Description:
It is built from eight helices and seven strands; from the N terminus they run βαβαβαβαβαβαααβ. By secondary structure, the protein is of the alpha/beta class. Helix 3 packs parallel to helix 4 (103-130) and helix 4 packs parallel to helix 5.
Amino acid sequence: MSRLAGKVAVITGGADGIGKATCELFAAEGCAVVIADVNVEKGKTVAREIAGRGGRALFVETDIAREPSIVRMVAQAVQAFSKIDILVNNAAVFVLKGIDATVEEWRQILDVNVIGVSLVSKHVVPEIRKAGGGAIVNLGSISSFIAQPQFVTYNATKAAIASMTRCMALDLAADKIRVNAVCPGTVWTQIVERLTREKGMDRQAADADPTWGGACMLKRLADTSEIAKAILFLASDDASYITAAHLMVDGGYTAV
Ligand SMILES: NC(=O)c1ccc[n+]([C@@H]2O[C@H](COP(=O)([O-])OP(=O)(O)OC[C@H]3O[C@@H](n4cnc5c(N)ncnc54)[C@H](O)[C@@H]3O)[C@@H](O)[C@H]2O)c1
């Protein structure tokens, strides 16, 4: 299949987890992918693996909390692939704190999850405009909409993503840029593996546990590839009349 044939996508946080799965799926669909991540070793590995399968991928060491780093990344992306059609704002940090969070912890999570997303969009959008339009997919979460214990910091940033998605969709519609959010439930990624391991659970136990996989209608955690497929849908022309939407990919979690 080649639902993104001829397209170029920047995927932040593409070295691991949902971002990595998205890079792999987009490349398999004919898209050239720019993996923008702070993790050099993992980012280079993802790029090498995609190239080994005949795909087009470029890793650019990028810290989305630092504007000069973003500017450099966009320049390298355009130099390598001539244009940008798609942006996936996926990179985030998981500072999981209640109201005991320090100012430093707040700044760390706001710098990446909120300000970083805005700055990457600021520098990528002019390139998408030059390409004649395109799509932005932001990674929200069930945490954009619900309360979770001792998650004040993280959920504040994911709620911001929900609002930013609507505002960006409004501002960029005239440029033929659709902006949507994918909102996953709990996905089997490094943070979830660590948190469940700390409670003595393996994947099977985490799937069944009533506070983890068992909390949603489908009674299991999501795999990263299942989130990547939703991101692909919103990034592709299959979603040509969809903007400002939040696609819940949560096994029914938020409906009950
Ligand atoms: N894992 C889940 O269960 C889950 C659920 C809902 C939403 N999400 C959202 O999905 C997205 C991806 O989550 P994940 O679990 O795959 O994360 P992950 O931690 O597995 O991967 C995140 C990637 O982002 C990179 N990154 C972190 N800070 C960065 C920075 N400053 N600049 C550039 N790259 C940076 C990391 O190096 C890493 O490669 C996030 O936005 C997260 O909030 C995740």
